[in-house]
Amino acid sequence: ARTRLASRRGTVDAADLMVDPAAALASPWDPGEAISLIKATDCPDALRKRLIEVVSDPAIQTSRYVWGAQTPGQFDCSGLALYIYNALGVKLPRCSWQQCAAGEAVERGSLVAGDLVFFNTKGNGVSHVGIYLGDDRFLHAANPKSNLKITSLDTPYYATRYVGARRVYGVTTDASTLGG
Length: 180
What we know:
By secondary structure, the chain is α+β, with helices and mostly antiparallel strands. Helix content is about 30%, strand content about 25%. It has helices at about 15, 20-25, 30-40, 45-55, 60, 75-85, 95-100, 155-160, and strands at about 5, 10-15, 65, 70, 75, 105, 115-120, 130-135, 135-140, 150, 160-165.
């Protein structure tokens, strides 16, 4: 029998939240490729260093998706953004739809590593966030079956759900949502 867990988003099988031990040992992405993406875009040095730390950390690479989580080993999409930016002194709101109001808007053609990219995955406004790495690719905590991964903005699922992007590092336009 499978154990069912209740959450605000319905029920899920407990087995879907477990990480296969063999899969947990392998990175879901090539850290060298991710670092190359980050280095190829123009972003502040402190942000570049932080992004490289994150994509290089095996504890983050093998993290599983857990709704509401924001620590290595467990993240949801907005928790991953919080984790990255808290270390840089940027205080983001907790939820993706709130994060979408932070910082300043960025056109898709002007994205740089570290920009937050937002999606409408539920049909009623912003419901997902990722961290842009470069070359139209972003890091995100996708869902309990996919966990953390790097995906192309051109993937049909995300391309049709793309809402916009925000630059939050070094932007002080709204002191209530950003720190430093």
